[in-house]
What we know:
Blueprint lengths: L1 E7 L4 H14 L3 E7 L13 E3 L14 H6 L3 H10 L7 E5 L2 H9 L4 E5 L17 H9 L5 E5 L8 E2 L5 H4 L9 E4 L5 H8 L7 E5 L6 E3 L2 E5 L2 H9 L3 E5 L3 H8 L3 E5 L5 H12 L13 H9 L12 H15 L1
Parallel strand pairs: 1-2, 1-4, 2-3, 4-5, 5-6, 6-7, 8-9, 8-12, 9-11, 12-13
Antiparallel strand pairs: 10-11
Amino acid sequence: MKVLYAIQGTGNGHLCRAMDIIPCLQKRAEVDVLLSGIQADIQLPFDVKYRMRGLSFIFGKSGGVDLWKTFTRSRIRTFIKEINNLPVNDYDLVISDFEPVSSWACYLKDKTCVSLSHQAVVMNKEAPEAEEVDRMGKFFLENYAPFTVAYGFHFKSYNDTIYTPVIREQVREQEVIDKGHYTVYLPSYEDKLLIKHLSRFPDVQWQVFSKHNKQPITTKNIHIEPIHNERFIESMATSSGVLCGAGFETPAEALFLKKKLLVIPMKNQYEQHLNAAALREIGVPVIKDLKEKNDSTIRFWLEHNQDINVNYENNIQEVVDRVLESHLVMK
Length: 331
């Protein structure tokens, strides 16, 4: 069987998941990899046959997606050309992790597309809903990467097509200890803003991983360094807690490592508000931003333990096998 596995390259979570999914696919099929997007910071340790621009969110610097840059950097003609040129009919199966070129190519060429992603199930009727419905955000999630059938990952298994998160082997193998620092990953905040807000807690050692800085810097109790996969995992595993956006992979890994977790959903990112609702349901504190009005919540989080137990078993091969075997039945 020949499989096209297509990955969204906005942010790093899809790539992190792909590192464990691709070897499982390769056990059962010949796999070509497609990667689209311009916002990823880590490299896949696999050959990538198709590198495409696709459609990417552009992170801002004050806590949200930069809608204007997202719009101006979207090259619609290039996107349409990529869709038309992608030979999806050369494959027995196309699997998309919220990747729009492959998804739309399948849709327009009447080809089965299996979605294997978090985004495909985050709006499932059995999953928690956001406090406020963002109609534009909902429309975007529903239409960004269309699919024929979906399997997915969430913080809990809400039904038999929703699995618990993929936790990378790199994370599973870490020695978990507490060295007293707090790990921060808020890619939609610029460094100056993070220094301004985090410096209100001078007794805390912050290790910040930044999309906006190419060289390590230290300002009093705040250490900022560029995003580096191994360093970030090590920082999380040896931290007292993790402060991050309400994405999926990083919060899931923090919970797996039994670290205290505090999340800030990104503005103009409806998926993160749905994630925040699911995290709040299991006891994770959620704040809207880093402004002083939230200092009491942050201080309480820093000073108190957090008892949230999750069971994220390594079920990747099971999921991959089900996807492949279901496709063979469908053919």
